[in-house]
Sequence to fold (557 residues):
Amino acid sequence: MSILVLADLHEGQLGGATAHVVAAANAIGGDVHVLVAGEGVQAAADAAAKLDGVSKVRIADNAVYAHQLAEPMGALLVELSGDYTHVLASASTTGKNVLPRLAALKDVSQLSDVIAVESADTFKRPIYAGNAIATVKSDDALKVITVRTTGFDAVESNGNAAVESVSVVVENGQSSFVKQELAQSDRPELGGAKVVVSGGRGMGNGENFKLLDGIADKLGAAIGASRAAVDAGFVPNDMQVGQTGKIVAPELYIAVGISGAIQHLAGMKDSKVIVAINKDEEAPIFQVADYGLVGDLFEILPELESKL
Amino acid sequence: MKVLVAVKRVIDYNVKIRVKADNSDVDLTNVKMAMNPFCEIAVEEAVRLKEKGVATEVVAVTVGPKAAQEQLRTALALGADRAIHIETDERVESLAVAKLLAKVVEEEQPGLVVLGKQAIDTDNNQTGQMLAALSGLPQGTFASEVVVDGDKVNVTREIDGGLQTITLSLPAIITADLRLNEPRYAKLPDIMKAKKKPLDVKTPGDYGVEVASKVSLLKVESPAERQGGVKVASVDELIDKLKNEAKVL
Ligand SMILES: Cc1cc2nc3c(=O)[nH]c(=O)nc-3n(C[C@H](O)[C@H](O)[C@H](O)COP(=O)(O)OP(=O)(O)OC[C@H]3O[C@@H](n4cnc5c(N)ncnc54)[C@H](O)[C@@H]3O)c2cc1C
Ligand SMILES: Nc1ncnc2c1ncn2[C@@H]1O[C@H](COP(=O)(O)O)[C@@H](O)[C@H]1O
Fold:
């Protein structure tokens, strides 16, 4: 077996998701290579070379790969994939954007959001917003897989793999990058945070999300939101947790003013401990919460912040 | 410019699914079906492009069983001009759907193809990207804004860190995210009119596409059920439990 992992990048640095994807690759077994493709990504490649289990890092550093646009990234992967039995990426918006192009061009299926490795050709993945878990077997010659990071514990960084340049440069006349508005925050990344505090429509408006700040500060938490809160314009889209937003599984998830629709639960029900704060004691969120507190969030949040 | 829009028949998003007792699949007998919510957004976007005078014709297409014609009729009621039904009772994976759609693209030569970003049954999030690759076209996935500008289209995409804007040459493939638009409801007179709009029925064989997949579904299980916990009476009790019982503080 030989596996190529497409590295996640965060403004040129190695994204936290890659260590989880390498863990999935290690669970499949075999030679694990990481591809770091972008512009000015030497530091990311060096970080990838340390990940446990990685035997080689391949770096494609060229302006055409900047922002990892789908068309050149897909073409690059097609060029490189010939030597591998598996190509893996995280189920990030980049992985989801790029990998299906590779699969289609190689005439193979893609397995999305894999959460467990049963063997080199058999995997588990959630379907129907996580309300069912499918075990699927692929007989394709190349397995193209996106990995849900919450399914695999990140590997440590004790390794020292060789970093090798990839000379393949593809053309891209079809798409170009215009701009990016990335949320700036000193808080941990939603996907990797140990504690997540999320607000829903019950927060009332964007201003009230400040009530979560003090609590998040004290707990070192990331702040998330329901789709209703994002749609209402309280907070930006990158904070959405759920079936079609981010999937999180922190040690502690605190849902505030969130009813608990299945699409929201899909994104957080694998958290270790769930706390729900809601004024409606019948809210479905209480069916999954370890600790439920019925009451008005506008009274509870200031008290919680002062007592933590 | 012609706009092609792909719609899928799936379980209604409000329905709580059940796994079959023999763990072979999800039980869909007598379950309410509907158009995939992301496809409703895709249809809405196509129809708005027509209303703005950017699109001249909207063609809806689905791959699925006979009953999927209901969803095509819905698309027609919402404003699509005609529909193509590629009929099959097989389980058709995203790759095969993409191959069929690529044939339709070849035949119809649309300027823009709009799909949903993901089907809420398989949660695959692949078809649009695969179609783009097979047709050799650029893609704007997870779109929250689409602006056609001459022979280009500007697409704002919802990405993990925020929003990204890219420019694509036309023709292009777009996949719709939730915030692209707010779909309208079909009005009764439009539902009546939709019954008379043209709907072509084809088979995968007509396009020379083999729908069988090399991926087999071995088992479908319910996820580990979370046991509902306890209600606490006060903030003090909550903090005490988190510290001393759950040990997460
Ligand atoms: C295709 C599709 C995909 C979706 N994807 C997602 C997704 O990824 N993530 C997601 O979250 N949703 C998603 N949704 C939407 C989902 O179905 C729900 O509409 C949404 O999660 C509801 O958000 P909410 O709980 O904040 O709002 P509501 O359901 O309106 O709940 C608000 C809650 O706040 C409580 N509340 C109000 N005031 C107070 C107060 N003062 N104190 C305490 N509690 C208060 C209320 O009792 C209520 O329970 C999706 C829907 C569709 C169709
Ligand atoms: N059977 C199908 N018929 C028509 N369109 C489909 C079908 N399956 C998927 N699609 C389109 O592809 C999108 C993404 O689906 P998927 O990649 O399967 O999650 C859907 O929202 C549809 O627009």
